[in-house]
Specification:
Alpha-Beta Plaits; alpha+beta; 5 helices
């Protein structure tokens, strides 16, 4: 059985000591999808959302979320993020949010990217719920990460199709 890194010898939760780790360039890409209702798709295409610019607001929310990740996830280390980008696209009724985070540090940025994508998706819901509350947030997932001891990792096509 794998040792739980966030538990001390007494089984209590604690923040992992990363002080002896070497700084490396690290990056992570995460995605969240929001299934929009037809009424919301029409409002987005017509740029007729009562709360304003959907993409800009979701993008800013995702950036802010990545920066606050260690405040939200109890055992995450605060990281000096060097890049956060949020790309949003709409195809049919699926709004896709891709969050990319980068740093040079002792621990990875997977949680920052996942948090950014998740909060951007929640912001989409908040911005559009006045039109129709039937939207579904789904498929929040890590797409890839690089850096650190484990190196490069990418979600395989087989894994994606197994979860569909």
């Amino acid at each position: 059985m794998t040792k739980m890194t966030h538990l001390n010898s007494l089984g209590e939760a604690h923040m992992v000591d990363i002080s002896s780790k070497i700084d490396t360039a690290r990056s992570a890409i995460a995605e969240a999808k929001v299934e929009l209702t037809d009424a919301v798709v029409v409002a987005v295409h017509d740029d007729n959302l009562p709360k304003g610019d959907l993409f800009a607001t979701a993008r800013i929310a995702g950036i802010q979320a990545a920066k606050k990740c260690s405040d939200l996830i109890p055992l995450c280390h605060p990281l000096p993020l060097s890049k956060i980008s949020i790309d949003i696209g709409l195809q049919d009724n699926i709004l896709s949010i891709i969050a990319t985070c980068k740093t040079t540090g002792k621990t990875g940025v997977e949680m920052e990217a996942l948090t950014a994508a998740s909060v951007a998706a929640l912001t989409v819901y908040d911005m559009c719920k006045g039109i129709d509350k039937g939207m579904i947030i789904r498929e929040v997932k890590l797409i890839e990460k690089s850096g650190g001891k484990s190196g490069q990792w990418r979600l395989t096509d087989e894994r994606v199709s197994d979860n569909a």
